[in-house]
Design a protein that fits this description.
Blueprint: E1 5-12, H1 16-28, E2 34-38, H2 46-49, H3 61-64, H4 80-93, E3 100-102, E4 105-112, E5 115-122, E6 125-136, E7 160-162, E8 177-181, H5 185-196, E9 200-205, E10 211-214, H6 219-227, H7 230-254, H8 256-270, H9 277-280, E11 293-296, H10 299-304, E12 309-319, E13 323-328, H11 337-342, E14 359-362, E15 365-368, E16 381-384, E17 387-389, E18 396-397, E19 401-402, E20 408-410, H12 419-440, E21 445-447, H13 451-456, E22 459-460, H14 468-471, E23 480-481, H15 492-501, E24 507-509
Parallel strand pairs: 1-2, 1-6, 2-3, 4-16, 6-20, 7-15, 8-9, 8-15, 9-12, 10-11
Antiparallel strand pairs: 4-5, 5-6, 12-13, 13-14, 16-17, 18-19, 21-24, 22-23
Length: about 500
């Protein structure tokens, strides 16, 4: 074993969460030595990794950006390369880039003798680091493996099959018939961009999503910038985007039927007459039980007006060498046997049973936009005093630390609002914890849940969404329950309050 490099703090990942965590460390602990280990060759994480056409945020950049270096453009729904450049610029301006070790993949993290020993792969060789504290900022999906989805007969297809996670640089869609399988944010992004590249595109979805058209450029920001310095204008716009989306989310939870009707009304007005809302835009779930997709300036609906974009809802029967055979979904308002059959299903008014008839879609290219494979901690092997520890067997302390894993911060963002809001609340909390330990002369902190707490506690979900890839990942997530401090995260406001004044109950210090 080579001589390890010794540091006070090591941050894993140089995406938006990792760069933010690094800033919080150097801001709150200016004399601490730290490094950021990044597998890839550039900063940006998701925004450097994905290459599919039209990659963009579906959150406003005022809250998705950093508080310590605000997003100053009035364009709130921004393309992926602009976000990556923004993250890189922020890292350079604050000297964080000097602490990043690119091409360093964490393989294993072993805790013993009150320190972490990290095994890192660099150019096919192993390198070692030691640190007192480790901050995991690796996001939540597997970079190497997409979510595996069973599409009957897909191996028969003679054309090109693409997963957006591995978009080829040489694909030419002009004049091609493209079928996108899926209905999430990636699909909503791909459709208008592929149409603009000259493709004839059909979205084939099993279940629809809610889609809201939003201006890409925020007029409030543009107006304020006329009279105020950009940094002050950005502050007020950030407040706006903190409050309004949060109120909308709460309204979705409290008045789901009202919000559902409002979305249906807006969707109907945006669609061409040839495309009905039912069944193509009537999801089986209430708003914000899954993420609501955003269409900047209504580009998704504009594409449907072009004549080169189509939408089909149904269940795939099989894929042949050049086409997809599927059973179209019946409208939820269809009379007769369909409605009777649905009467036995919860929420039957919004369920869409497949027709016995079949339809066919010709395809030169099939894009499987069916979600991401869930993975926490970057897939690294974690052990504590020689005992292997996994994320699913651990309870999550205030959405921040994992039970029985010492000196390890777990940075993850929100799924129901801007990711960075959650990751920043966590990063602030970690640094406050480290400052507390330093003041008290403490070296080790480990969350410990008692057997009595486990017996009393009713399990809850870490993520309050029922998207397919979250449902399939439930067994890979840490545990939470209905007792403090093991409850799931509630909101940005609560998490920030905890990061400022929250207590340390449930933690053991040494």
């Amino acid at each position: 074993m080579s001589v390890p490099e010794v540091l006070d703090v090591i941050v894993i990942g140089a995406g938006i969460s990792g760069i933010n965590a690094a800033y919080r460390v150097q801001e709150g602990l200016p004399d601490a030595s730290y490094a950021v280990l990044e597998t890839r060759a550039r900063v940006g994480g998701t925004w450097d990794f994905f290459k599919y056409p039209g990659l963009r945020s579906d959150s406003d950049l005022s809250t998705f950006g950093f508080t310590w270096r605000p997003w100053l453009s009035s364009r709130q729904i921004a393309p992926g390369d602009s976000i990556r450049d923004y993250v890189e610029t922020c890292a350079q301006e604050f000297g964080i880039d000097k602490h990043i070790r690119f091409g360093h993949k964490l393989v294993a993290a072993d805790w013993s003798d009150n320190k972490w020993t990290l095994t890192v792969q660099v150019d096919g060789k192993q390198k070692y680091f030691q640190s007192k504290f480790m901050i995991l900022s690796t996001g939540y999906y597997d970079y190497d493996t997409p979510l595996q989805t069973d599409i009957p007969g897909i191996k028969n297809f003679k054309g090109t099959v693409i997963h957006p996670q591995f978009w080829p640089s040489n694909v030419d869609v002009k004049g091609k018939k493209v079928v996108i399988i899926g209905s999430g944010a990636t699909t909503i992004t791909l459709l208008p961009n592929l149409v603009n590249e000259g493709a004839d595109v059909t979205v084939l979805q099993r279940s629809p999503s809610y889609i809201l058209a939003r201006p890409a450029v925020d007029r409030f920001m543009w107006f304020l910038s006329i009279f105020l310095p950009m940094h002050i204008a950005a502050f007020f716009v950030r407040i706006k985007f903190l409050v309004i989306p949060w109120l909308f989310y709460k309204a979705c939870q409290r008045y789901p039927n009202v919000i559902k009707q409002l979305i249906h009304k807006r969707t109907s007005a945006a669609l061409p007459p040839s495309i009905p809302v039912d069944p193509h835009f009537m999801p089986r779930y209430n708003p914000w039980e899954q993420r609501i997709c955003v269409s900047p300036d209504g580009d998704f609906f504009q594409a449907l007006h072009s004549g080169n974009a189509h939408i089909a809802t149904g269940t795939i029967e099989t894929v042949s060498s050049s086409s997809i055979t599927y059973h179209p979904a019946l409208p939820s308002t269809a009379p007769g046997d369909h409605k009777a059959a649905n009467a036995h299903a919860p929420g039957f008014a919004d369920a869409h049973l497949p027709s016995e008839k079949t339809s066919h879609l010709q395809a030169d290219i099939i894009i499987t936009a069916t979600g991401l494979k869930f993975q926490l901690a970057g897939g690294a092997h974690i052990s504590v005093n020689g005992i292997h520890r996994t994320v699913p067997e651990s309870y999550m302390w205030k959405g921040l630390l994992l039970s029985d894993i010492p000196n390890c911060g777990f940075i993850i963002g929100y799924t129901n609002s801007s990711w960075t809001l959650g990751s920043d609340a966590n990063a602030r909390h970690v640094v406050r914890l480290l400052r507390y330990m330093r003041r008290k002369g403490l070296e080790v902190v480990v969350p410990q849940i008692t057997s009595e707490e486990v017996k009393k506690m009713k399990p809850k979900d870490v993520v309050n969404l029922n998207s397919t890839y979250f449902e399939r990942a439930r067994g890979d997530m840490p545990k939470v329950g209905d007792l403090k401090p093991w409850q799931p995260r509630v909101s940005f406001w609560v998490d920030m309050w905890q990061s400022w004044v929250g207590g340390w109950e449930g933690l053991q210090f040494l």
